[in-house]
Predict the structure.
Amino acid sequence: MFQMTKLHHNFQHTKASVFAFVFLLPTSLLALFLLVLLACNGFSVFYINHLVPAKSSPEPATLLPEILPGDKTVKKLSSSSSVMYAVKEENPPFVSRTHSPLLQKPNVSMASGPKQHRLGHQQTLKTLHLGAKTKGFSSKIKGFFQNSKCKSRFFMTWISSLYSLGNRELLSIESVFKSHPKACLVIVSNTLSSNTGNIVLKPFLDKGFNLIAASPDFDFIFKNTHAESWFNRLKNGNVDPGEVSLGQNLSNLLRLALLYKYGGVYIDTDVIVLKSFDNLRNVIGAQSVDVETKNWSRLNNAVLVFDKQHPLLYKFIQEFALTFDGNKWGHNGPYLVSRVVARVTGMPGFNFTVMPPSAFYPVDWSRIETLFREPNDRIHSDWLRRKVEEIRGQSYAVHLWNRQSRKVRVQEGSIVHHIISDCCIFCNSSRSSLSL
């Protein structure tokens, strides 16, 4: 009897288990199906994200040598050359923010494009600083030149804040007047053309030097050139200013238009003038040369000396307006003048001279730090002394390449230390010391 009861109990338990299994079977299958679906979906998401990153990491802009007319290429020079200025092409520290993904993403919102365009246009107008202050530029410069009895005309542009104007830029101004005490210097700048800017420049005025800072009237400066139509399109939002600083590109254009309208000398604010430019006329400097052919491979626009309305300046401005690209560093500056000069060389009607690198760029950007170092032994000291004499004898100016050397300290006994002593006017001030 006991065995029969146990058997019956086991049968009931088995029956209950079977019913439970049958009852739970749909739920289990559903859970299994959902688990498989979730796994497939996760794999799909991972696979898509692997192909199309949500945010591409920025990459440095690739600056290949530009193709010049007649299949002439700006050649890349060996960095192992013993000639200090004959080195590889510049690879500037510009990072593009427009790296394209492998696959195009769909537009998230149709309204995002116009909004970004409006913001970009507003930023462009803010950069231009358009206003009543600039409208007096023409009469201000005309009166300055008439009343100052200038023996020569120099131009600079300053597109940054007043507080970023340092000892090096002020030394550049000093060097102009040290070599050209009767010159007139116009600094085109919104920040220096202010009450605080006047305080910064007052020591030069107290010395009797002819110096003025003026906010640019772009409409007047660009009038009757190809820059005029380009600038109007920029103001109307029909020109993409690009990733490179608009101020930097406007400086590239301003220097050309100023020389075209007035004639004279343009120098960057990191150029130190060593001797008089009075015997220079219609010249541009080579930055580098081919060590085999001895022909220039790259020109630079940090120093320009041209007559009023010179045809080469006209071509430079035309090239800027027709080929402007705000996403390529140097395209509207050194590359531009190199393209145009290569194109017009040998053509009638152009009268200009390409100066060797020793004239304005005796040391290339990649080796500029060597000018700031003190001698560390007798061999180095002998080389440094010879280099100083070479620069003094052959160079009209030295480009200090601020982009690469701004944070490099001047060491006592270095080449730059000697240059400061040669070119300073306020030689007891801090900027004539090692704080440059």
Q: What stands out?
A: The two ends are 112 Å apart (CA to CA). Residues 134-363 form a domain with the Spore Coat Polysaccharide Biosynthesis Protein SpsA; Chain A fold (CATH 3.90.550). Residues 68 and 339 are 6 Å apart (CA to CA). The first strand starts at residue 67 and ends at 68.
